[in-house]
């Protein structure tokens, strides 16, 4: 497949990636097992079923050396006081790292490797590095607006969404007054 173009641009006004050629939307109904209050998430999914995040991707050939990019827009909200988050994943290829560049909002990037959990505060202009082998999930810690970031990663990385069930994120992030608290995971 011939690439659609040689550039993308972050459209700040509309919070999307100009020239993206792939799009994904995750609603509460897609986030089974992510929140402590699973039954409440289920009920919320049956009712309003809010969009939790959107991902605008620029595709590339899935071969060694190529890079993928995507803008994630993670909306504000909670499930019973636990902030909206992405599903989170480990890369299938054990040697593939990733970079997140925060474009807007406030949040946390949770990193997981074995029993070790780390986190990076995300705010505009923070560039987070996810070393190869670390599971990663983002959390929007502000109810004032979306957490927006662009990610760059090797095209051969692949995403494993099952492994987080066996090697879960060790921390959870909850609403507290006008801020957040980090609690223990499962
Ligand atoms: C990101 C994520 C994106 C959505 O582009 O895919 O933020 O999160 P989930 O994939 O966990 O649903 C990335 O890490 N790519 O590799
Ligand atoms: Zn990733």
Descriptive notes:
With 186 residues, the protein is mostly beta strands. The protein has one domain (10-179): Jelly Rolls (Sandwich). The protein contains 2 helices and 17 strands. The protein has helices spanning 38-46, 163-166; strands spanning 9-11, 16-18, 22-27, 51-58, 67-74, 78-79, 82-83, 90-91, 98-104, 107-113, 116-122, 127-130, 135-140, 147-154, 159-160, 171-176, 179-184. It has a 6-stranded antiparallel beta sheet, with no helix packed on it. A 3-stranded antiparallel beta sheet has the order 11-10-13, with no helix packed on it. A hairpin with a 2-residue loop joins strand 6 (78-79) and strand 7. The longest helix has 9 residues, at 38-46. The chain is globular. The N and C termini lie far apart (43 Å). The model has no long low-confidence stretch (mean pLDDT 96). The structure holds 5-phospho-D-arabinohydroxamic acid and zinc ion. Residues 55, 70, 72, 86-89, 98, 136, 138, 151, 153, 159 line the site of 5-phospho-D-arabinohydroxamic acid (PAN).
């Amino acid at each position: 497949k011939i690439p659609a173009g040689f550039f993308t641009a972050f459209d700040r006004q509309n919070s999307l990636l100009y020239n993206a050629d792939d799009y994904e939307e995750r609603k509460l109904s897609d986030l089974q097992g992510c929140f402590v209050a699973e039954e409440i998430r289920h009920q919320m999914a049956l009712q309003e079923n809010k969009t939790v995040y959107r991902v605008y991707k620029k595709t590339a050939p899935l071969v060694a050396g190529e890079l993928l990019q995507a803008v994630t827009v993670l909306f504000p909200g909670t499930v019973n006081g636990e902030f909206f988050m992405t599903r989170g994943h480990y890369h299938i290829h054990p040697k593939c790292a990733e970079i997140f560049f925060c474009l807007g909002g406030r949040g946390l990037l949770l990193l997981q490797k074995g029993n070790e959990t780390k986190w990076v505060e995300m705010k505009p202009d923070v560039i987070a590095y996810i070393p190869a082998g670390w599971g990663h999930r983002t959390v929007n810690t502000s109810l004032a607006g979306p957490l927006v970031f662009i990610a760059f990663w090797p095209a051969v990385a692949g995403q494993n969404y099952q492994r987080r069930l066996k090697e879960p994120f060790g921390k959870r992030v909850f609403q507290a007054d006008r801020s957040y608290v980090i609690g223990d995971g499962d």
